[in-house]
Amino acid sequence: MASDYLYFILTETPEYYGHINLGRICHIRRFKYNTEITNSGSTIKLPVFFMGSSLDNKINMSCMKELNLEEAQLLMAILEDHERLKWFKERDALQTALTLSEGAAVTVEEGGEMLRGIIRYIGHQIPPKYPEPISGVFFGIELQGEDKGKGNTDGSYRSKSLFTCEKYSGIFAPFNRVWPVVPASPPPSSHPETEDVSPGDRVTYFVEDHFRHGMVVEVQKKGGEHVVRISTDTDENGKTGGEVEVPLQAVAKGEIPAEAEGMDFDTSQVETNTDDIYTNLTVDSVVEVTLATGNGYGIIRWIGTLPDRQEIMAGLELEEEYGVSDGTFKGQRFFSCPQRRALFVKLISCRPDSRFQSLAANYSEMMPKYGNAERETGHNGVLLDPVPPITAEQVKQLLIGRMKGIQGHCNSCYMDAALFSLFSCSSVLDSMLFKSTNPRDAPIQKTLLHDIVNPLRSKGFVEGQHIMKLRQQLQSQGYSRSFTTDEKDPEEFLNVIMHHILALDPLLKLSAGGKVQDSYCYQIFLDQNHSLVLPTVQQLLEHSFHSAGLKLAEVPSCFMLQMPRFGKKFKMFDKIIPSLELDVTDLLSEGPQQCMICGNLAQVECTECFKDPAFSQTGFKIFCNTCAAQVHSHPHRRSHVLVNLDIPKAYLGHGVPHTLTRDKLELFAVLCIETSHYVSFIKYGPNNQDWIFFDSMADRQGERDGFNIPEVHACPEVGMYLEMPPAELANQVPRDMKGVAKRLFCDAYMYLYQSTSMCLYR
C-alpha cells in the first residue's frame, strides 16, 4: 500500500549522484527507514528508490525533504523535475491544492489562457504500476460558461471515463495549473496540539486576564502536567524582572500582540468593543487591529471558527512581522503567508484600515470640485457617467501637486503607473470601460470606471483603497493568488484586464509568413549584430521587426512597446531617445508605400540593405524597380535578394503621389522602472515641454501607521533634452541631467503610442 512508504523529494545534489536531477521523488518502506535510522551514525544515508528506477541509491538525508503521501501524489503529476522542485518550494500553492475538493469553482491554465471550471474529479489518470507505490494525482475540471469547448476531453482518459462532461469541455491538469476562485477553508482539527517551547525562546503567556512577555528558562513536569518557568519582562505589579511558572497550555512562542486570539489559552474575558463590528468585512478586506505595539495593518485571508472557539475569527496577513505563524494554527494550515505575518483575531476586533478612511477626510479640503452638480453621482460623490480625459489646459489645475494622481499602497506601483498612463490624459482605451462583459466580471469593470478613472479625471486623485479593491477583485476571481501583495509587471496586469476580464479585441495584429498573430503589447527583441548605440524608439521597433520578419496587418489604435532589457535590472542601452511620433507606414504588410529615393510607388524591398551603412539607420529599404536596379548595380549589393511588395490593385500602373499620407502614432505616455519601482511620464500637450511626471509613492506620511503620498509635477526639462543633437545627448551624464529627465531617457520600460484616427473606430 502507498501508506507503507515514506516519500522524499531531492532538493540538493548528493555526493556521487550528480546525474540525478533535483526535483526527483523517491521512496523507502517505513520498516526499512526505521532500521536505517536505528543503525546509522551521525550521517544518515537512506537506500531510496527514485520513481522510474528499480535500483536503490544511498542518499544523504540532508539532500532531501520529506513529503506526506498527498503532497507526493500531487507533485508526481508534474512531469518535469525542475518544475516539480519549483512548485514544491511554492508551499502556499501546494497547501492550497490540498484543500480543493470536488465541486469547487476553479481557474485552470490551458494553452496560455485562464479558463473557469468546476472540479469533477481528483485522482489518478492511471493507477500506479509495480514497483511504483504511487502515481500522480490530477484534477479533472469541467469548463464553464464561455470557456466550454476549449478543453480536450469529455472526462475520459485512455477510453476510461473518470467524470462526464460535454465533448471538449473537460481538462485534466496538475495542481500547479489550478487555482481556487474562492479560497477554501479547511475543516477545523479535532486534535489541537500545543506548540513546543524551549529554553531561550521568547514567549507570550496569559495570567490573570492579561498577556505578558518573557523568556523561557526551563520546561518541567509537575503533577502530571508540563509547566514553563519564565523570566518575565514585567511581573503582575508592573515591575521589571522576576520569574513565574505557567502551565504549558497558557504559553505561546513569540510576542503575541494584546489583541491576538486563538492560542491555547482562555481569552474569553478579554474586553472587546462590540460597537466596532464591521459586517461588511470579508476575505481580502484591508483592515487594522490594535496590537500591544500600536496599530497593525493587514489583509483578511480567512474567516471562520477555530478549534475550541465559538467566535467568528479572522486570519490576517500582516504588512510587517508582528504575527506568530505563516498561516497555521495548532499545526493546521488555514491560509499561507510569509513567516511571522499571520495572526488570528476575533473578526469583531478588525476594522477598516483607517489610513484610507482618514485620508479622504484629511485631504477632502485640498481636492478641487469639478463637474456639473446635475450629473449623477454615487454615494461617495464619484461621478457615475463618463468623464473625459484631462485636457492640456486642465493639467495644471487638476493634476499638479502632492496628493495627486493615484495613491500607492503595498507594491501597487506597477498598477498605479499603468492606469495613470492609460487614462489620465488619453481616451484611446476608453472602450474597455463601457463594452459589455461577463456578468461575473462586471464589478471589476465598474470599479475601474467609477472608483478609479472617473475620480482621476474629475478630481485628479484616487485613494489607495480603490486600487486595493481592484486588486482584491482580480485575486478573488482567480487570476493570480498574489495581486494584493506582490509586485508585478504592468503587462501582466494589462493582459489580465484587457484579455481575460474585458475580452478587448487584441490591439496588435502582427503578420509573419502570411499568418496573423494577435497581441496586446509588443516586446522589442534585437539580434546580437545590431549597431545601435543611442537608439530612438523608431529604430528599435524597425530593427526588431526586421530581425523577426514581422509586419503590421493594420494600424493599431494603441501600440504598447516594451523596451529591450535583460530582466528588470539590466538595460540593453544606457539611454533611449523617445520618438514623439512613430511612423508605421513601412511596417504595414499591405498598402501603398513610397520609394525611399524618388518617392514614386515602391515595388520591392531589400532586407539586406536594411543594415547597409550607406543608408540611414531609420526606415525599411523599399524601392521602385528603377531605383532598385540602380542601387543594386553596386558590386557589394548585386547578390541581394529583393522581395516584391504587396501593392493594392488600385495603385498598379498609376504610381503614387509624393504627398502620400504617412501612418503615424503619437507618444502619450512612458512607464519607467528603477530599483523595482514604477513611475510614469505623460506627454499631455503638443509642445516638447508638455510633460508631467507621476510617482504614486513619492513621499510618505508617518511610518508603520502612515500612508503614501502620490505626486504629479511638471517636467519641462525633458523637452530641452529632446531638442539636443544626438551626439550632445549621448555625452550627458545621467546623474547630472536636470530634474527627472534621467529617468525617462535611462529607465524606460514601456512606451505607449496612440493613433488619433484609428481609436475612433475601436
UniProtKB/TrEMBL annotation:
It is found in: Cell membrane; Cytoplasm, Cytoskeleton, Cilium basal body; Cytoplasm, Cytoskeleton, Microtubule organizing center, Centrosome; Cytoplasm, Cytoskeleton, Spindle. Gene3D superfamilies: CAP Gly-rich-like domain (2.30.30.190), Cysteine proteinases (3.90.70.10). GO terms for molecular function: cysteine-type deubiquitinase activity; metal ion binding. Keywords: Cell membrane, Cell projection, Cytoplasm, Hydrolase, Immunity, Innate immunity, Membrane, Metal-binding, Microtubule, Phosphoprotein, Protease, Thiol protease, Ubl conjugation, Ubl conjugation pathway, Wnt signaling pathway, Zinc. It is a peripheral membrane protein. GO terms for cellular component: centrosome; microtubule; perinuclear region of cytoplasm; plasma membrane; spindle. The keyword Cell membrane applies. Its EC number is 3.4.19.12. This is Ubiquitin carboxyl-terminal hydrolase CYLD. It comes from Scomber scombrus (Atlantic mackerel).
